[in-house]
Write a structure and sequence with these properties.
The complex is a heterodimer of chains A (771) and B (325).
Chain A: H1 3-17, H2 20-23, H3 33-52, H4 57-76, H5 86-105, H6 114-137, H7 141-158, H8 169-182, H9 198-217, H10 242-245, E1 255-261, E2 267-272, E3 274-275, E4 280-281, E5 299-301, E6 315-324, E7 338-342, E8 349-352, E9 357-364, E10 367-372, E11 381-389, H11 393-396, H12 416-429, H13 434-446, E12 453-454, H14 466-474, E13 476-477, H15 479-492, E14 497-503, E15 507-509, E16 521-525, E17 529-537, E18 541-545, H16 569-581, H17 614-643, H18 653-670, H19 681-690, H20 697-709, H21 716-736, H22 739-770
Parallel strand pairs in A: 12-13
Antiparallel strand pairs in A: 1-6, 1-16, 2-14, 3-4, 5-8, 6-11, 7-11, 8-9, 9-10, 14-17, 15-16, 17-18
Helix pairs in contact in A: 1-3, 1-6, 1-8, 3-4, 3-6, 4-6, 5-6, 6-7, 7-8, 9-17, 12-13, 12-15, 13-15, 18-20, 18-21, 19-20, 20-21
Chain B: H1 14-31, H2 36-47, E1 52-55, H3 62-72, E2 73-74, E3 77-81, H4 88-92, E4 93-98, E5 103-108, E6 115-119, H5 126-138, E7 140-143, E8 146-149, E9 155-160, H6 173-176, E10 181-183, H7 190-199, H8 205-208, E11 213-214, H9 215-224, H10 232-247, E12 251-253, H11 257-273, H12 281-291, E13 297-298, H13 300-304, H14 309-319
Parallel strand pairs in B: 1-9, 1-10, 2-11, 3-6, 6-9
Antiparallel strand pairs in B: 4-5, 7-8, 12-13
Helix pairs in contact in B: 1-2, 1-3, 1-9, 2-11, 10-11, 11-12
Classes of the chains: A alpha+beta (771), B alpha/beta (325).
Chain lengths: 771, 325
């Protein structure tokens, strides 16, 4: 093995190993590193050794696969006989099957499971072998980096993690090292190149552009992963409202709204009534596969009084002043259901009686036109007057589902287990009416009976039975899980329900006329993002239910005695404690707004705050994009300027011939057939021909090579011919060596070369001394 | 056309050159049997605008080669038999008084021909030799303050007899390098000698030769080969060869820059003769034994040891790394 191949082999190993840090985010423990490291080293080492022994590529692949089998047998399968038999094969197959399940079902960061480790080590082994063969054996540097690039970017594409662009540096640096080592020492006629060739400029510019933009645009670094299988925020897993929710993973907690209102109320974005098994959406997806487009006939300009979405016989008025602090959204946070919007932005809002949402819309000359757009942004203020449906328990007692639209009870499949569970709950509570059933189910979720725990840091739910697993087995989740669970169970028992997304009322700053606050002020932050359930009671409208046992108790839970509470659970428990204490009102002096909130630094990945999360990423990426564009423009200018004068060396037939010649001479030298310095190519070819090592074609090759080297005309056909001839010559030279000579050449050639050098030096010294 | 360095250069039109050369070569080969290499070298010298020194024992066909070459080209030919009493003006020409015009009138000497055959050049005195050598180098003759241009093409083929040292004036080393090449003819092969007996038995065949090219064609060819491409690598190789002769341990005086230039011109001509429009290192290696040795002066000890410049040049060619691209 020559020095070049050794260096390239080492670089190959390095570039494979630098992909490993990317996998740290996939696993929660580090024990996977040892086996993977070992697999990569063994695979590259074996490939390098086999190549040095001049084993052809297919044999090398075969040996490597056998090696992988042995490695996996020793590492992953239980100890068995020295020669594995059918039993071991069955075990391997089972392990592979298990791996597929593990990969599908386990959210990241994952514990290191045996199946996963098996697949990962095998993957590393294969990629390492492939990369070595491409880079070292075939010298295809560009192609050779593709498998490692895939290996490197997969974890970044499927999981978000910390690290930033700097974490990409080791991998990119080692990839650069590979490219540098793979480049020929000198381009043919490099000393004659007065200018950089256009192909060089193009490749260089592309490389710089890629280097500048890749870490920025690659998911997982900086931005969110494309497909995040991470905890609690998996759109593939269990995310009721992907279209809104996947924009809402918030980089940090921040205040999004300031609300002035006489009373506490949820600020609702929309009611999602279409469920596909994983995702709640606004209405069914449109026919062409695009996102939901509301029926124009259900849209009303917010300049006028808004028609109710559903008739509500009993309502209380709610007035809310909203000031947007840090939020960008299409949907307008508003108490349900709004009657009138005040403020200049109302000209750009529409009210949809499907889904009951206010959204900002394109306007042309004051008329609503075209598409929804992000109109809620920092600095926007508006006042909403709403009529909150506030039926009493008695009002709702006689109300049944009646003839509601079938899509309000539609489910993507039969949830028999959930229906049975819901019926058990109803039965246990003796609930006969719709309101009783809804309350019973709500109680099942937030009370002790269901045994649910609120936790933001839960694995994503995946698989067909995900909802069942959550509701009947795991029982750990957050608002989206609970809202989905309750809505699905309600629908399964024929009750029209949907999931609403929006914000909890937020943190109260009580009115203080001395400080200039006439009314209570609520600060809504990203942690107040929330999802809950709405049930349609014909004639009384959509009534909210709250299945989430939030651990900060800021949710407002309707109860039979108060279906439309104005206090949250914290205040309620404080009030009840006060009432129970009775004679000692000072026992609970803590004011609700001052209550210490649970220490929680996790970002609540609920629906509601919408696209706010994307803004920091956009600001981070656009300078890079601009830089890339600038570089591209410079490259284009340079290339266009040079194209007239310079042709590409890479595709130049003469260069190809010279490369073939260099390859021929280098290969011969590696066999110990060395061209003397003073020999020209035709001379050395003639000598080898005399020695019976070459067919007469050698002369033809030499003639073309001379033409190419010293300024003769060489066309593509000549180049093809020369490359073929060079290969023939290499084969003939190899055949002319006996196996022993070939094997010993890597040792013999350097030794005899250094001996010759020493002899020469000694002779020179002796001559000088003698004279 | 583009080369590996991406530059575009003009390709000389070698078709006409090749046609001219092969016609001459065939014509001469008919007369001079069994000496294709020597004929080729003579042609190279002609194309390179050089002069040829043929050095060999008498009777091997030195003069025959020169004459055959001269006859093949339809141009003016002059022959000077060098003798000890030959005067410079016998070569260059004289100015004589013309009674008719009452004026002095220049009568050009034999050197004003396109091809000048100088037989046994070493028999003339140094002064006469110098007159010829000066005109060879300058390609002009200055007589009585008037400079006369020589014809183009202009080539001197001089023969020299190394055996008869009595009464000869060997060319001074310093002037030998006015000749582009020095070649020797050598005895013919047995078969060729037999053929010579058969064909040369009768009348003078050289006289019967028909010219196959004219002076203008040769002049065009000379211009054309100036475009034969010499890559940087080959140019460096040529220089390296010449410099190596200067560094050689046995050499007193090595090849001069004029020698490098001579190599360059000879290589271009050789490439053109082979029908190539680019020079290869092999051209240089093949020509070095003819272009370089007569320019070298060996150290006395090397001369005493019986070494000759040809060995030195072989050494040098064997020692200088040849470029492959």
């Amino acid at each position: 093995m020559n020095r070049r191949a050794a260096a390239l082999g080492a670089a190959t190993l390095l570039v494979v190993l630098t992909t490993m840090p990317a996998y740290d985010r996939v696993f929660s423990e580090a024990v996977w590193r040892g086996p993977v490291l070992l697999a990569a080293i063994l695979a590259v080492g074996a490939a390098a050794a086999l190549r040095a022994l001049r084993v052809p590529w297919w044999a090398s692949l075969l040996v490597s696969l056998v090696g992988l089998g042995v490695f996996s047998y020793l590492l992953h399968l239980p100890p068995g006989p020295a020669v594995p038999g059918g039993e071991q094969l069955a075990q391997a197959r089972e392990l592979f099957g298990r791996a597929l399940v593990e990969i599908r079902e386990t959210p990241s960061p994952a514990p290191v499971l045996s199946g996963m480790l098996f697949v990962l080590t095998a993957g590393y082994w294969v990629v390492a072998h492939l990369t070595h063969e491409l880079l070292v054996r075939w010298r295809r540097a560009g192609l050779g980096l593709v498998p490692v690039l895939v290996l490197w970017s997969v974890p970044l594409a499927i999981t978000s993690g910390q690290g930033g662009a700097a974490a990409a540096v080791p991998f990119l640096a080692s990839a650069c090292l590979v490219l540098l080592l793979s480049a020929p020492d000198a381009l043919p006629g490099a000393d004659r190149l007065s200018r950089v060739t256009s192909s060089g400029v193009v490749v260089g510019a592309l490389a710089v552009i890629a280097a500048v933009t890749l870490p920025g645009v690659l998911p997982g670094y900086g931005g969110d992963a494309w497909v995040d299988i991470g905890a609690g925020a998996d759109p593939r897993g269990y995310q009721p409202i992907v279209d809104i929710a996947d924009r809402l993973k918030l980089p940090q907690e921040r205040d999004v709204l300031r609300v002035r209102s006489e009373q506490r109320s949820y600020l609702r974005l929309a009611g999602l009534d279409s469920f596909d098994g994983f995702t709640w959406r606004l209405g069914p997806p449109s026919v062409d596969g695009g996102s939901y487009r509301p029926d124009p006939s259900s849209l009303y300009s917010a300049r006028d009084v808004l028609p109710p979405e559903a008739e509500a016989a009993s309502t209380v008025p709610v007035f809310v002043d909203v000031e947007v602090l840090d939020l960008e959204n299409i949907y307008v946070p508003a108490p349900y259901q709004p009657v009138q919007v005040l403020g200049p932005t109302r000209d750009e809002m529409v009210w949809s009686t499907e889904g009951g949402f206010l959204a900002t819309w394109d306007t042309v000359d004051g008329e609503l036109a075209g598409e929804a757009r992000v109109g809620i942004r920092e600095g926007v203020s508006y006042r909403v007057q709403a009529s909150r449906p506030s039926p009493t328990y008695q009002d709702l007692q006689p109300i049944g589902a009646g003839a509601v639209a079938p899509e309000l009870t539609a489910l993507p499949r039969d949830y028999d287990a959930l229906r049975e569970q819901a019926e058990q709950v109803y039965e246990a509570a003796g609930a006969q009416t719709m309101v009783d059933q809804a309350l019973a189910l709500q109680e099942w979720f937030i009370g002790d009976a269901g045994g649910f725990t609120y936790d933001l840091d839960v694995p994503a739910l995946r698989g067909d039975q995900a909802l069942e697993r959550f509701l009947l087995e795991d029982k750990v989740g957050y608002c989206e899980y609970f809202a989905t669970g309750m809505a699905v169970m309600l629908r399964a028992t024929g009750i029209p329900a949907r999931v609403a997304v929006g914000f909890l009322p937020g943190t109260l700053t009580p009115a203080d006329p001395e400080a200039g606050r006439d009314v209570d002020e609520y600060t809504v932050s990203t942690r107040d993002a929330h999802a809950w359930v709405e049930v349609l009671f014909p004639g009384y409208g959509w009534v909210s239910f709250e299945p989430t046992p939030r651990d900060d108790s800021t949710q407002m839970v309707p109860r039979a005695d108060d279906l439309t509470p104005v206090e949250n659970e914290l205040e309620r428990t404080a009030r009840e404690a006060r009432e129970n204490a009775g004679d000692d009102p000072d026992r609970n002096p803590v004011l609700p707004g001052e209550l210490p909130l649970p220490d929680e630094d996790l970002v609540p990945p609920q629906a509601g705050s919408s696209s706010a999360g994307t803004q920091p990423d956009q600001t981070r990426v656009w300078p890079l994009g601009l830089l890339a564009l600038g570089l591209a423009a410079v490259a284009v200018v340079v290339v266009r300027g040079q194209r007239a004068r310079v042709t590409s060396v890479g595709g130049n037939p003469a260069a190809r011939v010279l490369t073939a010649q260099r390859r021929l001479l280098a290969t011969a030298a590696s066999y110990g057939l060395i061209r003397r310095a003073s020999e020209t190519t035709p001379e050395v070819m003639a000598r080898w021909q005399r020695e019976g090592r070459l067919p007469p074609d050698g002369e033809r090759f030499a003639a073309v090579a001379q033409r190419a080297a010293f300024g003769g005309e060489v066309d593509r056909i000549d180049a093809d011919d020369a490359e073929a001839l060079a290969e023939q010559c290499i084969d003939a030279l190899r055949a002319s060596m006996d196996a022993r000579g070939r094997l010993l050449a890597p040792v013999r050639v350097p030794i005899s070369a250094s001996l010759a050098r020493t002899r020469h030096a000694v002779g020179a010294v002796r001559e000088r001394l003698g004279s | 056309m583009t080369t590996t360095d991406g530059t575009t250069r003009r390709r000389p039109d070698l078709a006409a050159v090749a046609a001219t050369l092969s016609a001459i070569e065939r014509n001469v080969t008919d007369i001079v049997r069994g000496k294709p290499d020597e004929i080729r070298l003579a042609l190279i010298t002609l194309l390179a605008e050089g002069h040829l020194l043929v050095e060999d024992v008498p009777g091997v066909g030195k003069t025959l080669l020169a004459r055959a070459l001269a006859r093949s080209i339809d141009c003016s030919v002059a022959r000077i038999q060098f003798t000890p009493d030959l005067l410079p003006s016998d070569i260059t020409g004289v100015t004589v008084y013309s009674p008719d015009t009452g004026d002095f009138e220049f009568r050009p000497g034999p050197v004003f021909a396109n091809l000048v055959l100088g037989d046994e050049i070493n028999r003339a005195g140094p002064k006469t030799q110098s007159a010829l050598l000066e005109s060879m180098e300058e390609r002009t003759v200055t007589i009585d303050g008037t400079t006369h241009e020589l014809a183009r093409p202009f080539m001197v083929i001089a023969t020299q007899n190394p055996i008869e040292l009595e009464g000869t004036y060997p060319l001074p080393e310093a002037q030998r390098d006015r000749f582009l090449m020095r070649i020797s003819i050598g005895y013919p092969h047995q078969d060729d000698e037999l053929a010579i007996l058969r064909t040369h038995g009768g009348e003078d065949r050289v006289r019967a030769m028909q010219p196959v090219a004219d002076a203008a064609a040769v002049a065009d060819a000379i211009v054309a080969i100036r475009d034969v491409h010499v890559s940087d690598a080959v140019a460096r190789y040529l220089v390296a060869l010449c410099r190596a002769t200067r560094a050689h341990g046995e050499v007193e005086l090595g090849a001069s820059p004029r020698a490098s230039l001579a190599m360059l011109r000879a290589c271009r001509a050789a490439a053109a003769v082979d029908g190539r429009d680019y020079v290869t290192p092999d051209d240089a290696k093949a020509l070095a034994p003819h272009v370089l040795p007569h320019r070298l002066i060996l150290r006395p000890e090397a001369q005493l040891a019986g070494h000759d410049p040809a060995h030195v040049v072989a050494d040098v060619v064997d020692g200088v790394p040849a470029p492959t691209e």
